[in-house]
Amino acid sequence: MEVREPKRRVPGSVRRARIIEAALSVFAARGYHATAMEEIATSAGVTRSVLYDHFPSKRVLLITVLQEQNALLVEHVGARITGSGSPGHRLRATFDAYFSFAEDRPEARCLLFDRTDEDDAEIKVVRWGIRETRTRAVAAMLARDLSRLGLDPGALITEAVVELLITGTDGLAQWWTRHPDVPRADLVEAAMRVLWTGLSQLPLGPAVHVGK
Amino acid sequence: MEVREPKRRVPGSVRRARIIEAALSVFAARGYHATAMEEIATSAGVTRSVLYDHFPSKRVLLITVLQEQNALLVEHVGARITGSGSPGHRLRATFDAYFSFAEDRPEARCLLFDRTDEDDAEIKVVRWGIRETRTRAVAAMLARDLSRLGLDPGALITEAVVELLITGTDGLAQWWTRHPDVPRADLVEAAMRVLWTGLSQLPLGPAVHVGK
DNA sequence: TGCATAACCGACGCATGTGTCGGTTATTTC
DNA sequence: GAAATAACCGACACATGCGTCGGTTATGCA
């Protein structure tokens, strides 16, 4: 005779959480279109139908995951940057906070930052919203420093600069996933080196000549 | 009576080129999984079957487009950066070359740089190859400058810095697609401001003092 | 002009995948 | 311990889309 597991049931809220966790993994690994609900269901230890008891559609499931993980990101970063300290220290703290998030939740980072699935109108709106508030948040945080650089907080080009900062930093995080052994501190150092110090700076050599 | 177009036929090479052009557009707009061969065919003014007279599968079609457009990118950028000039000028020229490519062929930029479709093993290999040679090429180009900054060309962290440069620059290009009215020169200026000068620098102070 | 080639098409088979519906059974509550 | 609720499932309907195959017709060439 087969030893039949007594088929435990689980309260809805728990199941829902497990589905979201599973969806995060699969969506991050395969992308939206390539993931089948079947795979999420299996990974959550349940049948496909159950997913539809909790979410009306695949699209809504993704959007839910997106928003939830973004909230986690905001909370994570917000919790570990201080309003005080020198601009340099603030920026360093921000890099460290983001890389620490990327370390803790690599799948969330992937899902939130890798540009994909922009063909679906509804998903696109959500992603753009997240992206936009993110850019604004960073811009606000750096407002003081940026304006000292002659970059007006309202100016278009300032927004562009912030976008460069964000995507560049995330590019570093992406690279990190392929070289996980590099310690986080080294990444922070590299980011500071480029974005804060700038490439023009010489290490120990004499002065650099700019201009003709 | 209907005016029947005499149903012109077109030599295979031309048709092939048109298909590739159409595929570029649709793939860039929708992403790999979301595009139907039907759409590419229609856009190329032909039936779906014809696509299979030229390419054995959707996957190979994408890979072909990828490689072809990447070759164009390499050629475009390579043609307008000089080996001579000060490091700052070389970097500036590179930014300008890349943004000019993004301006000319926005779809190619999107397809080549937006990270997507990594679920398909075969496509993944191609994308990673392209990405890798790109990183190496930039690293080689900046080798002198980077090593003057204390970044050893062979060191891992140098690779990371290059990755930051590339993704950050492309982030700027992405932003540009949403704000097309900004002149290219402004983008180049912004990129130089952040990546070359660095955020720590003060704004309108007269000369930049480096060293003593 | 007639033949060979190559561009082109319509329709089919097959696979995959979403969302729905009715039914079953564990769990809770009174 | 019986009724109500809520978790769970299997199977179906329907849609989409890839790749194939045999046939048709324009075009170039002898």
Please describe the structure with a list of short key phrases separated by commas or semicolons:
DNA-binding, Arc Repressor Mutant, subunit A, mainly alpha, 212 residues, Tetracycline Repressor, domain 2, elongated, disordered C terminus, 2 domains, homodimer
- Derived structural class of chain A: mainly alpha
Q: Using the coordinates shown, work out and report the CATH topology of the largest domain in chain A.
A: Tetracycline Repressor, domain 2
Number of extended strands of chain A: 0
Oligomer: homodimer
In what range is the share of β-strand residues of chain A?
under 5%
3D architecture notes:
The structure is a homodimer of 212-residue chains. Chain A is mostly helical. Chain A folds into two domains: 46 residues, Homeodomain-like (Arc Repressor Mutant, subunit A, Orthogonal Bundle), CATH 1.10.10.60; 143 residues, Tetracycline Repressor, domain 2, CATH 1.10.357.10. Helices cover 68% and strands 0% of the residues of chain A. Chain A is built from ten helices and no strands. In chain A, helix 2 crosses helix 3 and helix 5 crosses helix 6. The N terminus and C terminus of chain A are likely disordered. The interface between A and B is large, with 64 and 64 residues. Chain A binds a DNA duplex (30 and 30 nucleotides) through helix 3.
